[in-house]
Amino acid sequence: MERLLMGGIAAGSLFAGLFFFRFWYQTRDRLFLYFAASFWLEALDRVALALVPHADEQEPLFYLVRLLAYALIVAAIWQKNRTRR
């Protein structure tokens, strides 16, 4: 059951990444590209969690991938909202 749920989360993350990638393709705004990359990293993380035997979400490798994905979102928002000179 756990692998099924991981697959569902991975599929949803992949779909969300494609959704943001489509907006990036139309507007060329980096915010959408960063969001797409973040969701794709999350999808890869969930697939790896499902495929690696005895994997735990709190292992450093899986945690760091998720941290990188969230850091991309923060960087995208920060870059979008910084003041222009």
Can you tell me about this structure?
Pfam families: DUF5985. InterPro entries: DUF5985 (IPR046027). There is one protein chain. By secondary structure, the protein is mainly alpha-helical. It has one domain. Helices cover 82% and strands 0% of the residues. The protein is built from 3 helices and no strands. The chain has helices spanning 2-27, 30-51, 60-81. Helix 1 packs antiparallel against helix 2 (30-51) and helix 2 packs antiparallel against helix 3. The longest helix has 26 residues, at 2-27. The chain starts with a helix and ends with a helix. The mean pLDDT is 93.
Q: State the major sheet.
A: none
What is the CA–CA distance across the termini? 53 Å
Order of helices and strands: HHH
Q: Rg from C-alpha positions?
A: 15 Å
Instruction: Count the DSSP helices.
Output: 3
Shape: flat
Q: By helix and strand content, what is the structural category? A: mainly alpha
User: Roughly how much helix do the residues carry, as a percent range?
Assistant: over 70%
- Strand coverage percent: under 5%
**Unreliable segments of 5+ consecutive residues:** none
Keywords: Membrane, Transmembrane, Transmembrane helix
Transmembrane segments: 6-25, 32-55, 61-78
InterPro entries: DUF5985
How would you briefly describe this protein structure?
This protein is an all-alpha fold and 85 residues long. It is built from 3 helices and no strands.
Which properties best describe this structure?
85 residues, mainly alpha, 3 helices, flat
Q: What's the helix and strand layout?
A:
Layout: H1 2-27, H2 30-51, H3 60-81
Helix pairs in contact: 1-2, 2-3
